[in-house]
Amino acid sequence: MTFTPTALEAEGAAGGEATGDPASTSPPRSGRRLTRTFLRDRVAVACSAYILIVILMALFAPLLVKLSGHGPLEFDQAAVDPNLGGIPLGWGGGISADHWFGVEPGNGRDIFARIVYGARVSMTIALLATALTSVLGVVFGLVAGYFGGRVDMVVSRVMEFLMAFPALIFMIAVLSALPAENRQALLVVVISFFGWPYLARIVRGQTMSLKQREFVESAKASGASSAQIIFKEILPNLSSTIIVMTTLAVPGYVGTEAGLSFLGVGVVPPTPSWGQMIASSVPWYAVDPAYFLFPGAFLFLLVLSFTVLGDRIKKIAESGEGRA
């Protein structure tokens, strides 16, 4: 539920022996050409469009809820049948002009309102965790790869320990023991704690290769400091790798948040969460499948879109470098 190793790791993570990785063989690519290639890729554009819709939905959740007329915490007992155990009235789990996606069985809360607010929670946690993971992974990877020696040994042992540790079990144990306050911030910290080594390992391997290049030797000869070489010379050559890995990290963190909420240690009710909604829908799926369908479909499409988009960006970057 953290960074998943990809072909990039095979190229750059094994100590920098590989010399065919994009960052070590090619100069920076033309942004315009890569943008044109991306826009011609219909699958990538479709995935980006869905992701943009979810982001806008999360940003404008209060406005959308006002338009629908029901808040995420409001109960509408008139929309459920108390004589049948709280099953929503009407077709498709209570879908109507009043409730666009129906209502939750038993309490009548509007599913559309909880979906849009759940998108805000999921995207906030996933994007913040990705940002923190990227900063930690890039900094530690650059430092370990550039300085080597004892610094590399210490950072590498820490990475190996965290990557070998059963992260999900630890997350469940820690989040179960901690108070419910600031649960979203805790999720970001815990997810990032186990996520950064995967990016750091790749950055470390490619940095070890890049530091042998002529432009780095020239910077050293000109009197540039280690910090200037790392962040002005080496880091820009790792941009495509970092973009791909961060794009691929987001769906993993969306799934992690949903999974932890499903298990009851993630976002605390009544705060809406897609994983929490899926967990609540399990007892009702036989009589009200729409309750499971909507949050499940939004979650599935978001994870799929980020995963496919990351793969497409990787292929576009590699093809651009291959034509250089």
From TrEMBL:
<feature type="region of interest" description="Disordered">
    <location>
        <begin position="10"/>
        <end position="32"/>
    </location>
</feature>
<keyword id="KW-0813">Transport</keyword>
<dbReference type="InterPro" id="IPR025966">
    <property type="entry name" value="OppC_N"/>
</dbReference>
<protein>
    <submittedName>
        <fullName>ABC transporter permease</fullName>
    </submittedName>
</protein>
<feature type="transmembrane region" description="Helical">
    <location>
        <begin position="43"/>
        <end position="65"/>
    </location>
</feature>
<feature type="transmembrane region" description="Helical">
    <location>
        <begin position="185"/>
        <end position="203"/>
    </location>
</feature>
<keyword id="KW-0812">Transmembrane</keyword>
<feature type="transmembrane region" description="Helical">
    <location>
        <begin position="234"/>
        <end position="254"/>
    </location>
</feature>
<keyword id="KW-0472">Membrane</keyword>
<feature type="domain" description="ABC transmembrane type-1">
    <location>
        <begin position="119"/>
        <end position="310"/>
    </location>
</feature>
<feature type="transmembrane region" description="Helical">
    <location>
        <begin position="290"/>
        <end position="309"/>
    </location>
</feature>
<dbReference type="Pfam" id="PF12911">
    <property type="entry name" value="OppC_N"/>
</dbReference>
<dbReference type="InterPro" id="IPR000515">
    <property type="entry name" value="MetI-like"/>
</dbReference>
<dbReference type="InterPro" id="IPR050366">
    <property type="entry name" value="BP-dependent_transpt_permease"/>
</dbReference>
<comment type="similarity">
    <text>Belongs to the binding-protein-dependent transport system permease family.</text>
</comment>
<feature type="transmembrane region" description="Helical">
    <location>
        <begin position="125"/>
        <end position="149"/>
    </location>
</feature>
<keyword id="KW-1133">Transmembrane helix</keyword>
<feature type="transmembrane region" description="Helical">
    <location>
        <begin position="161"/>
        <end position="179"/>
    </location>
</feature>
<dbReference type="InterPro" id="IPR035906">
    <property type="entry name" value="MetI-like_sf"/>
</dbReference>
<keyword id="KW-1003">Cell membrane</keyword>
<dbReference type="Pfam" id="PF00528">
    <property type="entry name" value="BPD_transp_1"/>
</dbReference>
